[in-house]
From TrEMBL:
The lineage of its organism: Archaea, Methanobacteriati, Methanobacteriota, Stenosarchaea group, Halobacteria. Pfam families: DUF2270. This is DUF2270 domain-containing protein. Residues 1-10 have a biased composition (Acidic residues). Keywords: Membrane, Transmembrane, Transmembrane helix. The chain crosses the membrane at residues 78-96, 160-180, 192-216. InterPro entries: UCP01500 (IPR014470). Residues 1-22 are annotated as: Disordered. It comes from Natronolimnohabitans innermongolicus JCM 12255. Coiled coil: none annotated.
Amino acid sequence: MTDSNSDEFDPTAPDQREIGREMVDDSTGLGSVMAHVYRGEIDRVGTWRERLDETTTWAVTLMAAILTWAFSSPDNPHYILLVGILIVTIFLGIEARRYRDYDVFRSRARIIQENLFANALDPSQGVESHDWRAELSRDYRRPTLKVSVYEALANRLRRVYLALLSVLLVAWVFRITAFAPRQDWLTTAEIARIPGIAVVAVVGVFYVVLLGVTFWPHERHAKGEFREGDPDDWKENR
């Protein structure tokens, strides 16, 4: 195999990109190094996955506490639910930031899986990226975030936070309508001297923005782990 330290290193050359087959056939130093690299990347993926789950757990816990208190007495103000929406939105921002870091290590692990281990198991399929070694090397030299803040927010909204914020919205609407049947719901929606129509308008605009961020078509940059298809194909092919 061509020396990867040579000035003539070509990451697209067959003997350079298909090192997975050599790792299986022979015991090489590079194979041992890549095994340790992969183990380290998987460990960091797990660590950041746990941090994502912790953020979601805190958001759900605080949301449950706010919902319980808001409906425990008719005298409790309705705007506590709006405070809950604000708090959950803050957790959304924290989780989006953590997701961007998580995706860095997940992307590295997926590159190794697709181009090294998959090629070692079935060399007939080749590699997914001809210059994957150069791509991985560049990322180790200059680590960069792979997804934008917008994409990270959209991902976390679709997976978790749109559902949580929707529950809080339904609870707030119920609180200012059915929970105070003797008053006009716009009057009930007032906060101090802020008129109810202004409060409703702000909440409405906020949720329109959320829906736009969640469902507006955009190019995906995050490295996917799963492919669409029939789940039964796995069992049929075994």
